[in-house]
Amino acid sequence: MKFGLRLRGGLLATLIMFGAPVVAPVGAVFVSSSALAQTVQSISVEGNRRVEVETIRSYFKPGPGGRLDQGAIDDGLKALIETGLFQDVRINRGPGGQIVVSVVENPVIGRIAFEGNKKIKDEQLTAEVQSKARGTFSRAMVQSDTLRIAEIYRRSGRYDVRVTPEVIEQPNNRVDLIFTIVEGSKTGVKSIEFVGNVAFSSYRLRDVIKTRESNLLSFLASGDIYDPDRVEADRDLLRRFYLKNGFADVQVVAALTEYDPEKKGFNVTFKIEEGSQYRVGAVDFRSSIPNFDPSSMRGYSRVGVGSLYNVESVEKSVEEMQIEASRRGYAFAVVRPGGDRNFEAHTVSVVFNIDEGPRTYIERINLRGNSRTRDYVIRREFDISEGDAYNRALVDRAERRLKNLDYFKSVKITTEPGSSSDRVILIVDMEEKSTGDFSISGGYSTTDGALAEVSVSERNLLGRGLFAKASVTYGQYARGYSLSFVEPYLLDYRVALGLDLYQRQQLSNSYISYGTKTLGFSPRLGFSLREDLALQLRYSIYQQEITLPYYLANCNNNLGTSAFNPSPAFANANGISLASTNGLGCYSDGEASLPVRKELANGKTLTSALGYTLTYNTLDNNKNPTDGLLVDFRQDFAGVGGDVSYLKSVIDAKYYTPLVSDIVGLVHVQSGMLNKIGSNDLRMLDHFQMGPNLVRGFAPNGIGPRDINPYDTQDALGGTKYWGASLELQMPFWFLPKEVGLKGAVYADAGGLYDYKGPTTWSVTNEMTTPSNSGCTASTVNPATPGTCTGLIYDDSKVIRSSVGVGLIWQSPFGPLRFDYAVPLSKGKYDRTQEFRFGGGTTF
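Above: the chain sequence. Below: its structure as tokens.
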């Protein structure tokens, strides 16, 4: 055996010694032993056309003494191959033992083209592929680009895509590269199933995840497109949902995806192990830091004994405690939560341990990926800066704030070691996205009729974090425009300054006899007191005037002028007797109510008011809430200059709670009060006007005090006090797919509006007096002479209005739509009802 090995080794050495020619494939090297004595300058290069000889020689690094050994030649060959500049590289022995490097250069790409792509533009594909025009052609790179293009299509839901590269040779060692694409049909998610869920139905869990099932309206959204990254993110969303609801042992074991050739889509199945639901048994606070009282942190805990164990509440408690400790001078304090499970009682005893953490400082904060957004816009979201103590809670808060800005597709803050062991570098990686919006909105409601809006907005104006919006509205009964501007950091403080300029015109319709024109300006300041508590201060100044159709203001003192002759339909709708002319041509066709005519005579009125809004919000979802509380308390004081003065107070509270079988309960209470301030009388326009916004089943402005003069238009006068309460159950249609977005509602409403305190008398000028208005007494026997009108006849009964009804709620791709049918159970004598109501809108 040993002899055989020596023989074979000797034969190989003999072949090399006598110079037997051997052709080496790419990556293999066979040179004579004399080549080992060569230097770099003795290397001969063949076949190169674009690459310089010295460039090729530079890949061969000599060893000690400037000589090339076998290892240097092997390394040089490997380095040349890895450049991607050559199709083939061979190393041979030339005359006198000289090393000869023979190369075949890769062609140059003349152009890159894409054919068959309709769903993805050429510009996007060109940016994604590595092969570039005027770059070197590499078959390995082309293969990689082919896979990359296919992956892009798969991310957009087209798994049947086929990509075929074609190389067309051109003169002078150039090629054209053509990618032929057969896009295939869209591959969506055909079904989503949950296995192992007992506490929550599959219908409820579909609300938690982002992936959606395909349906007839899927072309308006992209949630049904199969995306493995989204499915993986859904696993975490499900886990967080269970942890928020007391299931401390939950595990989302797997998310299984299977392609169904018959349905041409994917079936997604989430396997869940729920475990038991836990409540908080006890909450304790401990500290290892000298002179630090742990019980002082109790006020910053959001975890209560007896409540469901909620990981999010624990995390928020940790964050607020750690930040508070830092404010007290314990910059390196670390709060670590612990939990001791009682498996029999299904409780968790939560302990917050406050310890001294490592003394680590922030050396630098490096920002990456913000090509448009200014650095200071990002840095101001941090409550820490270079040189401060490293506080993970503050870093997490900064990351959350950056995500909430909605300027970036993704934000991730990581750490790297600094220049010493007690230094860290924060790396903020961001991917920017478009922040400008152009929208065309349309809608229809039984109150405002058809309505359209065109708006242009920018959330990150000039990369400075400013918000600006301009919109124009034109509708059947409402028209106007608005300009808005927001500076979120006024004078580098976390205070938002907003400026609004608006003009609105409300036209007369079947619910009100008069129109209004309003031109106003309102600056405001917004403060975030806590994550669930916000305060807004505002100042409003606006000019308002009433307009009337000519047939409601045609009463004049010229008895020779014939009065307006209304149509029978108009007369019947307003309860007007066409025969009751009284010979004066006034009121015979109906006139606006006294407060309306008085406001018309006053002309333009200026209102100057200071106000504030305090908002408490714990809703789990602002668009489609199922749990939580939303309370708004607003007050406005008018009388800071201007022509009117009053104090208006309003409170509105909504409480959502999940019941059984995906049914959500809603309790809605509201109340308001208008108080007179100073000597100025209250205007009718300042009163509360209520209808279906208080009790469904009634027409707009259909509730409360009303002018009941049969010769007037019987306008709603409004009231200075109102209250309302509503109980509603919202339930899904279990027989319909979740993605349709339909759910039903049953409700009962009750409320009241009363206590009119507007004008009831008026020193009349150019007003006719008639026997039909016996309270108007003329100063002379001539009925055309101005007198004093005290004859406002109105109803202000304190009747409780109530109704029951059903509703259909549709979270459609066109925007939220709602249909209600309500039947009044109790009402005032002169109230106006409207059993069916519809409203909604969209943004295209």
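Confidence is low (pLDDT under 50) at residues 1-36, 556-571, 573-589, 765-790.
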